[in-house]
Design goal:
The structure holds 2 protein chains of 2 kinds. By secondary structure, chain A is mainly α. Helix content of chain A is about 80%, strand content about 0%. Helices cover about 80% and strands about 0% of the residues of chain B. The chains are: A mainly alpha, B mainly alpha.
Chain lengths: ~150, ~70
């Protein structure tokens, strides 16, 4: 209001091509509105895509479960293919047995126990870490087979 | 190393066949879903390309408007 009162003798700038200017402005507005309209389409595509990705994830999990159940159906041939690791396990077991009778050696066993605790800590792993562990386990099995 | 022969109980064998069938079905479903995701991604990319073109168009129009506004009539 005050501004209007102050502007008693306003100055004007003549603009050539007023129609062109108006047309340009309207076309810009039209373009922006069209973009907003397309954004709505984009949003619906994205929502649909996210839904499908969720569905895909569920399907992959289902496949994983089925493969696990398949593994349980099949007999364990691990003992047949992997002979070398068994020998290592036996060696370790023997070492433990030797250490137990000695009093001083018991301390050594106690040192080994915290190591086991350290292994237990990562049990609170993320989904990604669990999958990585599973992958490593399977890769190890595959390597032992070949 | 001699490979040992593996024997599976007949009931388990039936289960195995059934499970393999289920896995095949699930895999087909997953493939279908993934194809749909790909289609939607292509649509999204098309939309983004459209936006890019539209913005360039608007940019050139604003340039024109700017040009008109900075050349006042005498």
């Amino acid at each position: 209001m005050k501004m209007a009162e102050k502007e008693e003798n306003p100055l004007f700038v003549g603009i050539s091509g007023g129609d062109e200017l108006r047309r340009g402005m309207l076309e810009c507005s039209k373009g922006i509105l069209e973009s907003l309209k397309e954004y709505e389409n984009f949003k619906s595509f994205r929502e649909e895509k996210l839904g499908l990705i969720r569905k895909f994830r569920g399907e992959v999990k289902g496949i994983s479960k089925l493969i696990n159940s398949l593994r349980t159906c099949l007999p364990k041939v691990k003992d047949v293919g992997i002979k070398k690791p068994e020998v290592k396990k036996v060696e370790k077991a023997e070492v433990v047995k030797v250490e137990k009778p000695g009093v001083k050696k018991v301390e050594k066993i106690k040192v080994e126990k915290p190591k086991v605790v350290k292994i237990e800590k990562p049990k609170a792993k993320t989904e990604l870490e669990k999958l990585e562990d599973e992958l490593r386990d399977i890769e190890g099995k595959l390597n032992s087979l070949s | 190393m001699v490979e040992a022969q593996v024997f599976v109980k007949i009931e388990n064998y039936k289960d195995v066949l059934h499970t393999v069938g289920l896995i095949k079905n699930k895999l087909n479903e997953a493939k279908g879903t993934l194809n749909k995701v790909k289609e939607l991604k292509a649509k999204e990319d098309l939309e983004l390309e459209g936006w890019n073109n539209k913005l360039s168009e608007i940019e050139s129009k604003i340039e024109g408007i700017d040009h008109i506004l900075f050349e006042p009539s005498s």
